[in-house]
Design a protein that fits this description.
Layout: H1 14-32, H2 36-55, H3 68-80, H4 84-104
Helix pairs in contact: 1-3, 1-4, 2-3, 2-4
Amino acid sequence: MTMDAAPRTRILSGADLRRLLVLRDRLRGEIVVGSRRKRQEVLRAMEQARQLRLYGRAVPYQVPAMTSSELLREIKWRLDAASLEEATAAARVLHSARRRARCAR
């Protein structure tokens, strides 16, 4: 029985580390005012990015039934350990939602 090798961690450059910290901080602020649906999309994007980073493939992720406050708590908890890829995926979801809202006006 063989075990899969542990995922290799990437050491971030100074610029990437700064970008990660800024993204995490911005996401914490923006997700608070977001709707429940937006929070579900952010959580789904973060989980798929995590699976892609760890296992090399992302399977569809079904967000468990949670209240809006539980979603917020889960996202904030995951942001504390989020990689740059996960934070970027979450920011992409928020950015596209903001762009759709602007176009609807």
